[in-house]
Amino acid sequence: MSEYVVELKGVSKRFGDYQALEEIDLTIRNGEFLTLLGPSGCGKTTILRLISGLERPDTGSIYINGQDVTDWPPEHRHLNMVFQSYALFPHMTVFENIAFGLRCKKIPEKEINERVEEILRIVKLTKLAERKPNQLSGGQQQRVAIARAVVNRPLVLLLDEPLSALDYNLRKDMQVELKQLQRKLGVTFVFVTHDQEEALSMSDRVAVMNEGKIEQLGSPRDVYEEPVSLYVAEFIGEANIFETKVIRTNKKNIIVSIEDKRFTFKNKRGCKTRQEVNIMVRPEDLAVWREDEIADKANEMDSMLPGKVEQVIYKGSIVELIVRLESNKRLFATEFFNEDDEKLDYQIGEPVWVNWLPGWEVVLPNAN
Amino acid sequence: MQTKSTFKKICVTVIWGWLLLFALVPAALMLITSFLTPDSNDIVSFHLTFGNYTQLFNPAYLRILLQSLYLAFSCTALCLLIGYPFAFIIARSTSKHRSLFLLLVIIPFWTSSLIRTYAIMALIKAKGIINTVLLAVGIVHHPLPMLYTYGAILLGCVYDFLPFMILPLYANIEKLNPELIEAARDLGAGRIRTLCKIILPLTSSGIMAGTLLVFLPAMTMFYIPVLLGGAKNLLLGNLIENQFLAANNWPVGAAISMIITLFMCGMIFFYWRNSLSKDRSNFEELV
């Protein structure tokens, strides 16, 4: 078995006038949980359907276990899909639904019974085997859909927004269950979602997609902490963005001006003088200070941004602050409660100073 | 609310009254007539008899019954064979073409079926359009005998009843979730297995509805066999027509009608029983 279970090379897809997918390359490692994340219409479902064989690519090739399967129909690829609508066969019982794929492969009836019963135990549906899909709840239907796919022991399980039809609590439970199931089965999961929280919490790697392109592919931590573009930074999590220009560069550092103050950042991405850049800081990386909390006023205030508290949102374990800077820019800051709670008792309109630890910012060169 | 329910009552009463007067009363009259004695002067004389029914158990009538069944069966089978792929394609096509195709199916309804049957005659008769073209092009040297054959009757029936097959099938196939077909393919089913195990079972109520709508009228069709078959092939519809209009034997005609009615009720009951277990709404759609 090769290291990559699925490889897409130069694959693109167009529907009429609409370029659903630009030419992309994507490799999926054996046994990983890969999430395709993006807003609707970004091409994530198209990738899934291309891998499954339900669509044919306009250009490029698709390899499964090193074998070119571009021209293979879906029934010959050893992959299975969990559809967004579940697509359970309404005229068949739960048992028949799950056995369908095995019967297509002409597996002996005795083995089919064993395998279906085993998977029913795993998804905890043994008692409902004789029910029809319309007699099941949404969560149960979803588990049948997953069971129907994994009972075939596919090389890769493709999941098209499988949790989007469930309510919030059930969704949280199913996220945990899905992740456990993936570990138990050791099957490669390719998961499509538009929910960034879901993507971060479940995946080994996340591919962030935008308008038919993969913007960034990396671990959840990479895409959150080191986004490669403004798009990724804003799509995943909250982000405070300062638009500015590079004033000067030297070998290692760049100097930029934020709110009329000069900052020196590490030049990780090769920015040039006068290049337009966006400086991104996550709300939880921002520290908010009252004037009397600043020890060394003369030195520290040079790297702090003055502003006023505009709104305080109390959320139990955290407090979210909206700070209006002097330039009228709004910043989002998340403060965590620690031992001395009183510090977080902000008043609306109170003057504050905002800073962050050097190095926690991300410098994003402007694409244009 | 009050006016709404009054409106509802009026609607229902009018329709029930209409049906009682023009459907149930004539049917009851037919039922009574079928038990009376034929009389050459007064059409019927009021002597109760089962003779009209017993005389139907005679090989000549049985042959007509079998012929009618055969025609209805082959007509239905052909309609299904032609209509199903057609309905499937229009139900799956993009919306722009879909309405056009559907319109093409419905347009023939705007013309009387009788006139359309005459049009077929004009097409297929010895000096008709098809033969004229074939002779002119030189494909045949003598006109093909097409009119007044069994094939002509079948052609006329299939042409006439095809929309009744396509429309319920279309309504049913359109509701079929395309992801079910994709799911079947994804699970390893080839085209034939997908058709037999997923598509056909899930559209079976549409198939049943279309079959009933074609089979029942095809059983008693009378003017198409006369016009296109040249009255050589006597069918149930012609038999009834003859008994009433030519032989002036109303009781026997009524008896045959009653038997056919019973037969059809049986079929509808069978369909209803079937659809009860599956999908009640499809039956209500048909009725």
Folded structure, characterized:
The complex is a heterodimer of chains A (368) and B (287). By secondary structure, chain A is an alpha+beta fold. Chain A folds into two domains: 4-233, 3-Layer(aba) Sandwich (Rossmann fold); 238-365, RNA polymerase II/Efflux pump adaptor protein, barrel-sandwich hybrid domain (OB fold (Dihydrolipoamide Acetyltransferase, E2P)). Chain A is built from nine helices and 20 strands. Chain A has helices at residues 44-52, 94-104, 109-122, 138-150, 168-185, 196-202, 220-225, 230-235, 297-300, and strands at residues 4-15, 18-29, 33-37, 59-64, 67-68, 79-82, 156-160, 188-193, 205-210, 213-218, 240-249, 253-258, 261-266, 276-281, 287-289, 305-314, 318-325, 330-336, 351-355, 362-365. In chain A, strand 1 and strand 2 (18-29) form a beta hairpin. In chain A, helix 2 crosses helix 3 and helix 2 runs parallel beside helix 4. Chain A is elongated, with a radius of gyration of 25 Å. With 287 residues, chain B is mostly helical. Chain B has a single domain, classed as MetI-like fold (Orthogonal Bundle), CATH 1.10.3720.10. In chain B, 77% of the residues lie in helices and 2% in strands. Chain B has 14 helices and two strands, in the order H-E-E-H-H-H-H-H-H-H-H-H-H-H-H-H. Chain B has a two-stranded antiparallel sheet with strand order 1-2. In chain B, strand 1 and strand 2 form a beta hairpin. The two termini of chain B are 28 Å apart. Classes of the chains: A alpha+beta (368), B mainly alpha (287). At the A-B interface, strand 6 and helix 2 of A face helix 8 and helix 9 of B.
